[in-house]
Amino acid sequence: MTGKPDQSVANSDRIVISVDAMGGDAGPTAVVAGLAMSADKNPKIGFLLHGPVAELKPLIAKKRILDGRVEIRDAQKVVTMDDKPSQVMRNGKGTSMWATVDAVKTGEAAGAVSCGNTGALMALSMLRLRKMPGVNRPAIAILWPSSNPQGFNVMLDVGADVRADAQDLLQYALMGTSYVRNSMDIAKPRVGLLNVGTEEHKGHAELKEAHALIAENAEKANFDFVGFVEGSDIPGDAVDLIVTDGFTGNVAIKTGEGTAGLLTSTLRKSFEHSLLSRLAAVFAYTSLARLSKKIDPRRVNGGVFLGLNGTVVKSHGGADATGISAAIKLAFRLAEHGFAEKLAARLASVVELTQSNAGSQDAEHPPK
Amino acid sequence: MTGKPDQSVANSDRIVISVDAMGGDAGPTAVVAGLAMSADKNPKIGFLLHGPVAELKPLIAKKRILDGRVEIRDAQKVVTMDDKPSQVMRNGKGTSMWATVDAVKTGEAAGAVSCGNTGALMALSMLRLRKMPGVNRPAIAILWPSSNPQGFNVMLDVGADVRADAQDLLQYALMGTSYVRNSMDIAKPRVGLLNVGTEEHKGHAELKEAHALIAENAEKANFDFVGFVEGSDIPGDAVDLIVTDGFTGNVAIKTGEGTAGLLTSTLRKSFEHSLLSRLAAVFAYTSLARLSKKIDPRRVNGGVFLGLNGTVVKSHGGADATGISAAIKLAFRLAEHGFAEKLAARLASVVELTQSNAGSQDAEHPPK
């Protein structure tokens, strides 16, 4: 199972991405369709695809564009949405998810993509890839549609860990700015710390401590610390990166997604209301398609796990071919930029300054 | 300053609402316009209006409908958005906000409405009205557009206090269900506890404790406890009431508001994109107006403070006349239903069962 992939898949021009065929709501058919979309757009990409070979082989065979671009790695077991992370860590060997992550560890692939159970994927990624030196809690970073010139903000953590202390939040700021630089070409990202108000006297004591710690390190780490921001700044223009704990970040993105979903379904119903409004919808079609493209969550599909020795991208469980292709593109781009190595170098350069405050970086912080 | 309002304002058919003319972004002109809208729709309403009499008198005089419906109470000082709650508690006497709340305490008004500084308004309300027996932390409840039959969910706390322990979350469930019954005519509200997943093993330890405590009291308090819900359920159909701490709730509503704002501005830009799309917008006008009405935040303007001896409604600081009128309507409806008394009775009836778990209800819980 280890060693370099087939010559045909990993020729010298290609970057190989390891993909979990299983665990998504739409099954392996959508994943293979996503592979085909990516392969069609990007001649420099090759794939390791993990899952039951008997099921995957005919799906691959149907897509001409995937000829010689995919190596199937047989994995009979699947991690389901109901599996607990702790179970998967103990018994996950032999699952397609385990093998997907492992290919990054062995160096066969430059990045991994899975649509499966987020908690299990994070647990397996931590187990197999290990945390980078100096990282206490890894985080999940996502892109969020915003009124920024680049059209997106990055937010982390959105659910790797429900807790984060001041030191963790500083590390999120460091990892996040590195990610912003490598995914958006912004030299000096603007960073905000999520709170219930922008005044410095508001919020939890931990947040005030984090505010001081991040402000202290902003200049050395070459980012612009804007200070506290509010939920309304997540889709806003004030910052490029929003730092928060995984509990708050997770609630925020799900609330935002839900609200966007309610709005678009209400909009659809408005246009179905009467014969005249159906006619109006025909006229408005181009404008609505433009809106839909701008806010299409599939275009920004992919939560990146930061702080591990290797790149893992979590695709939305409900992703279709377009969404899966977007997640693959993200993993490819980060691999191409040598992001994991750059992040490791950046963290190493700041470990000294953070360690002076943190004591042992690998000690688990007790729950607050 | 105390005693019954003028005979003309508080005739026996009328319910008097105390309104802060100052502190909103749009100034007293918008507030007086809101009063006029409410007075026009509702012959049973009268007002005490607090602010600088020289400024208010000419504004009132311009609105015929307000003849004999408003008594101006002179207050020269104004609480600004930058004032800290602690300062306002010490030095707030003589401000329009103080007087607005005080009229509820003295019994001159059946409810209070202010567009001013939320933290200061909560601090003054707690100082003047005091917490209801059995309530540890008062909460702010808001309505949120949802795909429910009633079109809205109630969520609390959205920012009265950044902390809440299991016992507080149980009280939020009790106060919130009482509010749902009185504002929506739902006999047995469905209640969800906000978390990062619906599985019982997820989230903070405090949330697991709250889950057990709320489940235990659901039957006696006549609500249906659905269990953990996620951010996507806030605009969803799964529950009628969402219980969370003030930090998470505040971030969630601001993220939702921001996302809705981004979507509608993007939609507007889509229709301004070309001559053809401008033409399409003309055809689509009715459908867009229907959407706009459905999601118009002004229609659901008003955060209600729960757990105090009296009804206080916080209007959005940026509210226009329509928004202010909606907040006034909410205060009126709750007064008409005798909500404050019903809530007190409900809390009294469950104090016994909660006290067996909580120890002294009035002791402050130390920060977590």
Structure description:
- The structure is a homodimer of 368-residue chains.
- By secondary structure, chain A is an alpha/beta fold.
- Chain A is built from 11 helices and 11 strands.
- An 11-stranded mixed sheet of chain A has the order 3-2-1-4-11-10-5-6-9-7-8, sandwiched between helices.
- In chain A, helix 1 links the parallel strand 1 (15-20) and strand 2 (45-51).
- Chain A is globular, with a radius of gyration of 21 Å.
- Chains A and B meet through helix 8 and helix 9 of A and helix 8 and helix 9 of B.
Most strands sheet of chain A: 11 strands, mixed
**CATH H level, superfamily name of the largest domain in chain A:** Isopropylmalate Dehydrogenase
Order of helices and strands of chain A, N to C?
Answer: EHEHEHHEHEEHEHEEHHEEHH
Any guess at the CATH architecture of the largest domain in chain A? 3-Layer(aba) Sandwich
